[in-house]
Amino acid sequence: MSAADAVWDRPERLVRPLLIAFLAACAVDLVGVLAGIPVAHLVAKPMLMPLLAGYAAARRGPRPLIAALLFGWGGDTLLLFDADAAFLIGMGSFAAGHVCYLWLFGRARSPLSAGVVYAAVLITFVALLWSGLPADLRIPLTGYSLLLTAMAYRAGTLGRYAAVGGALFLLSDALIATGIADWPQLPAPDFWVMLTYVAAQFLLTVGALAPGTGRIGVTAGAYREGSINI
Predict the structure, then answer these.
(1) Which of 143, 155, 199, 219 has its CA 20 to 30 A from that of 163?
(2) Cα–Cα distance measured from residue 52 to residue 23, given in angstroms and rounded to the nearest whole number
(3) What whole-number distance in Å separates Cα of residue 200 and Cα of residue 90?
């Protein structure tokens, strides 16, 4: 058996290298964004989700998780292009990823109180943002925000790590939306968008890979504790 055959027969050998490669790509991307080095962002950003998806696959993660990460890669790549059509298609790719996450979460119950909080945040945020959004983006962004909020709310079915990941995903896209609406921005806004985004996807992955998580859905018992295993 060749070395390559041994790797494919035992994908767990790739777990640590892929995780290290993902973290390295995150570091390159974040430093590039913060230091104003566009080429670092252009090179590193499209590598992030394929590496994380590869890590999840090597850990024998559920297919909806891997699909969600690859749809995230599609969105990441399309949003590198400064064009309205690329933005809308990229947003659609992220939306497809959220559908995959919702499929992954299955039918486990989520706390009603958390749902009320997320619904209130969504309604308030969209109402405040509405007048500042371009007219042709108001409906698409509202629909996307509804789907994203549902994903963030349901993420807690995979445990605390995924719950935080869902909330960070919501925060990351909220930062993008405030930029579109010309709200005052934090210093280095792109850095905070990317930091919250990569942290969100990683924590959602950790939650999905936690012991006891089903391959298509999740076992009963919402908001159980996850664990990080590499």
Answers:
(1) 143
(2) 9
(3) 18
pLDDT digits (tens, 9 = 90+) for 28-58: 999 999 999 999 999 999 999 999 999 999 9
- pLDDT tens-digit readout, 201-214: 999 999 999 876 65
* Residue with token string 């960070």: 168
- Taking the C-alpha atoms of residue 210 and residue 63, their distance in angstroms, rounded to an integer, is 15
5-7-10-11 Cα dihedral, nearest 10 degrees: -130
**46 CB-near residues (< 8 Å, 6+ apart):** 73, 76, 77, 80
172's CB contacts (< 8 A; 6+ apart) are: 193, 194, 196, 197, 200
At 20, which amino acid appears?
Answer: I
